[in-house]
Design brief:
The protein is an alpha/beta fold. It has a domain of 138 residues: Ribosomal protein L4/L1 (Ribosomal Protein L4, Chain: A, 3-Layer(aba) Sandwich), CATH 3.40.1370.10. 34% of the residues lie in helices and 15% in strands. The protein contains seven helices and six strands; from the N terminus they run ββαααβαβαβαβα. It has a six-stranded mixed beta sheet with strand order 2-1-3-6-4-5. The longest helix has 17 residues. 22% of the residues are buried. It comes from Aquiflexum balticum DSM 16537.
């Protein structure tokens, strides 16, 4: 499969990039995508939620009324969950939501996401991007040239470029990442995926290694 390499102004460079069918034209595995996205979202959770149980409530331990003769249920502590201000029964506790996934399954999920982008015509190959200084207007000009100013975009760089990253950081619908950091959730969350020309070979090397 071949895709044309696009200039920053949206014009064709005349060059083409050959995309591996083992990455961009596989049979997508929806369950692998589900598991990888589920793990990504689980890893974002801080897990710091906490409520107090009855043994953690500050209050008197005095028996609040006599055992018998009141006509109501017996009660031994104001910290009981049945009273307002008492402890919570089986409340949330700090926990780690992360879980393990096999490396090959995560690779399959990313390949499946990339295949969906190709099928939806949402993948674009862009000549390598580099800014001399971090300026948001430079990145806006790039998006306007590609006719993606109103789209949610993910730009994948071959390596870290702080000027490009900082130029895009204030734009709500854009995200810049590198080949090493790209994940299934971000691939699917973007309306359009923009791969830099130098990112293609690195991405294939990353996803095809066993």
């Amino acid at each position: 499969m071949e895709l044309a390499v696009i200039k920053h102004n949206g014009e064709d460079t005349g060059r083409k990039v050959n995309l591996s069918d083992d990455i961009f034209a596989i049979e997508p595995n929806d369950h692998a995508i589900y598991l990888d996205v589920k793990q990504y979202l689980a890893n974002q959770r801080q897990g710091t939620h906490k409520s107090k149980e009855r043994n953690e409530i500050a209050g008197s331990t005095k028996k609040i009324k006599k055992q018998k003769g009141t006509g109501g249920a017996r009660a031994g502590s104001i910290k009981s969950p049945v009273f307002r201000g008492g402890g919570r029964v089986f409340g949330p506790k700090p926990r780690d939501y992360s879980f393990k996934l096999n490396k090959k399954l995560k690779q399959l999920a990313r390949k499946s996401a990339l295949t969906y982008k190709v099928k939806d015509n949402s993948l674009m190959i862009l000549e390598n991007v580099s800014f001399d200084t971090p300026k948001t207007k430079n990145y806006i000009a790039l998006l306007n040239g590609l006719s993606l100013s109103d789209k949610k975009t993910l730009l994948v760089l071959p390596e870290v470029n702080m000027n490009v990253y900082l130029s895009s950081r204030n734009l709500p619908k854009t995200k810049v990442t590198t080949v090493d950091s790209v994940n299934t959730y971000e691939l699917l969350d973007a309306d359009n995926l923009v791969l830099c020309e130098g990112s293609v070979s690195k991405l294939e090397t990353l996803l095809l290694k066993q």
